[in-house]
Amino acid sequence: MNMLKQMDKEEYDAEWINLIISARKMGLTMEDIRAFLRSPFQPMKPTQNTNENNPCMSP
After folding, report:
1. Ranges of each domain in the chain
2. How many helices (H) and strands (E) does the chain have?
3. pTM, full prediction
4. For residues 23 and 33, is the Cβ–Cβ distance under 8 A?
5. What is the pLDDT of residues 6-59, one digit of tens each?
């Protein structure tokens, strides 16, 4: 691995570490972080399945 790629990797690693530390300080658990990373556009906790707030499901 050349020096430039190694420096980039170390920089990204430090950034990821700082992001995880910040998330933990905000009160997120490791499972919360994992769930977000697996599916960032999905809610972390399932919501009650109702159709009243969904305009596509209105009669």
Report:
1. 10-38
2. 2, 0
3. 0.50
4. yes
5. 667 777 888 989 999 999 999 999 999 998 888 867 665 665 555 555 555 444
User: 3: which 2 tokens?
Assistant: 């020096």
| Helix, strand and coil in the chain, % to nearest 5 | 60, 0, 40
Q: Are 45 and 32 in contact (CB under 8 A)?
A: no
Crossing angle of the two packed helices 30-38 and 3-25, in degrees rounded to 10: 120
Tokens of 58: 């209105």
CB 38 within 8 A of CB 30: no
Nearest to 33 by CA among 24, 41, 45: 24
